[in-house]
Structure formats: structure tokens, C-alpha cells
Amino acid sequence: MATHTAEPTAGGAAVEHLTLEDRVWLLRAMLLMRGLEERAMTLYRQGKVPGSFYDGYGQEAVSAGAAFAMGPQDRLCILHRDLAAHLIRGVTPARILSQYMGRAAGITRGRDGNVHFGDRQLGCVGMVSMLPDMMLVATGMAMAFKLRGERRCAITWFGDGSTSRGDFHEAMNWAGVQKLPVIFVLENNQYAYSTPVEKQFAVDPVERAAAYGFVGVTVDGNDAEAMFEAARAARERALNGEGPTLIEAETMRMHGHAAHDDMKYVPKEQVEEWRKRDPIERQEARLRDAGVDIDALRAEVKASIDEAAEEALAGPMPDPSTATDGVFCSGEAEPLGDGQAPWSGFSSGGAA
Amino acid sequence: MEWVLLWGGSLMPTLTYLQAISAALRDELRADERVLLMGEDIGVFGGAFKVTDGFVDEFGTERVMDTPLAESGIIGTAIGAAVVGMRPVCEMQFSDFISCGFDQLVNVAGKMHYRQGLAVPITVRLPSGGGFSGGPFHSQNPEAWFMHSPGIKVVAPSTAEDAKGLLHAAIHDPNPVCFMEHKHLYRRVKGEVPSGVFETPFTARVAQPGSDLVVIAYGAMVPVALEAVSDGLDGASVEVLDLRSLVPLDEEAILDSVERCSKVVIIDEANQMCAAGAQVAALIAEKGFESLDGPVVRVATPDVPIPFSPPLESAVLPGVDRVREACRELLAY
Prior knowledge:
The complex is a heterodimer. Chain A is of the alpha/beta class. Chain A has 12 helices and 9 strands.
């Protein structure tokens, strides 16, 4: 089994599958993610976001690029630093800010906090704190797709710390043995809370894909187009019956584990080095060269966040009398619905 | 009739408890293409207890799936399959092994609907209980772990017909259901079982009516209770209430029995601390206090791992003599 590093993509393989509009979409998703998280951080400091706050600053390309390659009928299990995946599937910014603030209009209606959510109507399942439990859930989705002979796949994101847990190995093994249409995105952001990767694994974790019998690729996780291309190719393999793919997205957690964490344990030079590789600046530079009005796009994104914040702040908190409602399903079990899939490859009918 | 006949079912064949479970699974696989069995050695080998013996011949190795040896994997992938429209039925080879799948069941499956409104229709079959020198890792009764975890239903049949009807109802239920099937009952209990698909409700059942004392039990402790009171206990009228379902717990049936009988013995084969019976005792203390004519008495396994050697195992598991003695003492109170 091949383990290889994906080609650098500026002007390379990715562009051949992306229209200019697609490439703007990728930037818009990343800008929205960063802007929403910055706004949520402000709301947190104002005491409007209960609990703690987790963000994916600097990692926006990992979720934006990979989610953009997924079709409406594909299913996603999304990690807490992957807000762009939710945005691409069609979750509105107002519902996301409501979610952070524990409001009734949030995706979990105040039942769960921060990015622990998935909109079931858009084909997404929210994560739990025990990482990487969702690798097995995604594997099970893929198992059902294969049993029913459906051409679709499941994708899940997890971090470097997750590679130490049993569920990582159980999922990788299961998916390899059954040759399932599942994409595992290992978001290697160098730290699991305060623990650096050298205390997490003795081998480059992408090599483990070969040990479980499938393809592993390493990608620049700060390049949205490279992420898209890796996920697109992985999806193609999955739909062609060629089994799972492990994508190791190399990136950096630029903020602390959560709002309380000053990240003193990370060398300053490491952060500075990665700051030069900011995924948004990189995509902006590409699109500016292609003649896109970046300032207008930024203004559009900011306006939508302002509007979302206003709407979310005006929304009510959940009614305390409903706190024990909904533990059990009392009606029919409704499976996950289809999500938005803005990539032009789906609408043109070509690549999908 | 306490069960609801859905379709089919005219003859009443006599089946063992194990055959009734097999029949339910077979009927479900035939009736619903979404149903999928997953477990270790359940396919070609037919399961450690032969519950799925011969199933691969009729349903194939994809719907009667030999999985990798990975309990977290079994529960986790079942959850994934369920949320995209399947109805997985997982077999833990022994209920003890659910400890390795605990996280997926409790944190992912149990909390899913509350958090996200997403139903997880999975059934987890848990061959449980001791009495055959299985030792500390093949004899446990872990039902209370899941009673304490919101979002999971827990049922525990004691008869062949309830084994079939509760398993059908569990598979039809839109929630995660732990189906506690007691290994000691597999071939010892038999009875008439309606054929075809029918559902036994998740409620208690009066196994034997009485008015002087009620013994509340479930699973393998129901036949123990019935045997313990079979000699009439010096002419006393003793009721036996079979809980059948632990989540939801049939509070109304429990309080009805207490009101009629005024004296209560609660049996658990599980370890005593925080067992299902502890919840029943708390319920009675809280809502049935005025009906009581004596202390609530519990008979359970002391808080030790289940020992291997027969005299040690017999010393800890509740048996007919201990139950009879507890009833006699309470009747004399």
C-alpha cells in the first residue's frame, strides 16, 4: 500500500477540478469560520458563551477543503476545530452563534455546547468528547453504504492525540478488513492539549494506513485546495470500491486548547513559523492573482456575521421546563438527511 | 393476552428460551431488510451459544456478520449504520465484554437523541448471568450500568415467549436497547411461543398472583422466586412480579403489587450495590411507604466478583433457599 505525500497544488492537480467560483467558496467558508469564531470569542469574554470556548484558528483549510469534496448524500462526523465543514453543509451562522451561547435556536437547543453538534438534517453527526469515537460511527455508516450497494462515503476528522486510543485502531482495522468507503482525516495540529506529537506516536501516523491495508497520504493542511484534492481523490477511491483512505493533514493549533489555555508550552518560534503559512492568506493571495475582489468578499462575510450575531443575541434561552425532554425517541427513527454540497463537480454531474 | 400480535402467528410451538431468541432474530431478518446481525463468531460458527446457528445459509455473511474482535467497534459501527437507516442487532459474546464497548454505548448512542434529536435504533444482546462456573468474566449481570445511563432502555426476559416478544419490541424500538438474555435460562426454560412477529410491551408481568407478600424479580431470578414459593410457604399467598423491563421501570405495577401484598422481597442476581433492586426499593420507600407492613427485604449477590469454583459460586448467587428463608422471615414479621 502506498503512503505518499500529495503534490503541492498551487496551480496543480486541484485547480483542474475547481472553478474560480469553487475556489472563492473555499475562501468564503474559511473566512466565515474564522470570523464566527472570533465573534464567539468576543461573546465568550463578555460572558455570553457559557463553559469554555474552542476554536480552529489556523486550521480552517482542513475542514473547508475536505468537506467541499463531499456530496449531498455523503455523511460527516465533524471535529471541534472544523467549523467550516458545518458551514459548507449549510448550517447558518446564526444557529452556530446560538449554539455557542446555549440558546434555544442552537443546533442542540442548549443540550450540548460549543462545536459538539451536527445537524442531522444536513447529514452530520456531532462529536462526543471521547476522541476519536466518531471514527467508528463513520466506519459503520460506510459499512451500511457498502451493504446496500450505495455509491456514497462517510468522512470523519480527528486529531493527533486520537491516534493513541483504541477506537482509532479498531476503526482503521475494521474499515481496512471490510474495505469500506470511509475517509479518515487525521488533523495533525502538533498538540493534544499540551502534549506534543513526539509523546503521542513513535512513527509518522500516516504510515499506519499501510499497516491496516489501505492508502495513506500526507497533505499540507493549511492549503484548502490541497485538502480538497486529497479528499476528492479519497472519495473517488471510496466510491470505486477501493476502500478507505487516511489523510494526514499537517497543520498547527495556533490558539490554546481552549479559551483558558495560554499555550505557554508551545515555543514561540513554532507559532511564528506557522503564522507564515496561514491558510486564509494563502487562498487570498491565489484569488487576488485571479482577479477576485477580496475586500468585497471580506465585507460580505463580516456583514453576514454581524447579522447572525444580532439574530442569535435576540433569541431566547431554552425553557428550563424542557430540560428532561427528548432523552428517548418516541416516534419513528429518522435517519440523517442530505446536506448542501456546493462544489461545482456535483452540479455539473461530472466528478460526482 | 399480554402481547400484541402484529401479523402471522396461529400455532404455538414449544421453544426453549434460546430457540425463542433465534426465532425472533430469524423473523426480523425475514421481515425487515434493514435488520443486520453483528458479532464475534456469530456467522459461520453460529455464535458461542448457537443462537444464530445456520443463519448464514439463509441470510448470508453480510447480514449475519462475523466482526473483528472489537466490542467498541461493534457498538460504534452499529451506531453509524443505525443513523443511516439500518437496524443493527449486536451480540456481545458475553455480557461482560460490553465493558469494552461501554463508551460507545453510553456516550455516543445513549446521548445522541437528547443532544441532536437523532435516533439510534440499535439492539445489544447481552448473554448474562452466572451459575455454570463461568468465573469473574463470563458471569456478570451488568444491567445496572446501563440503567444509570440516560437514553438506553434495558429489558430482561425470564420466559421463552417474553424472550421473543421483547426482542421483537427491542428491534422495533427507535432507541438503543440492552437485551439481557440470561445464559442459565437458554436451555432450561421452555414454553409455548406464538410464531410470527409480535411485541411484548416494556412493562412488568404478574408471574404468580398473591396477597400476603410479593417477590419482585427479573431474568433468571424469576424461576428461582417461583420455585422458592412453590411449596406455599406455610399457606401464605405469595405473588411473584416479573419486571421484564428495567428501563422503563413499571412503577405502576410495582406499587400495585406492594399495595396488595404489603410485604416485599426484591431479588437481584447482580451485585447488590446500586442494582436494579435498589432502585425498586427506593421507589417503594418513596411512593409505597404507606402500603408497607414490614421492611423492604433484598436478596442479591454480595459485592464480589463471581467466583469460579462451584461451592464458591453457589455461596454468592441468590438461590431458592435464600429466597425462601427471606420470605419466611418477612412473613413472620
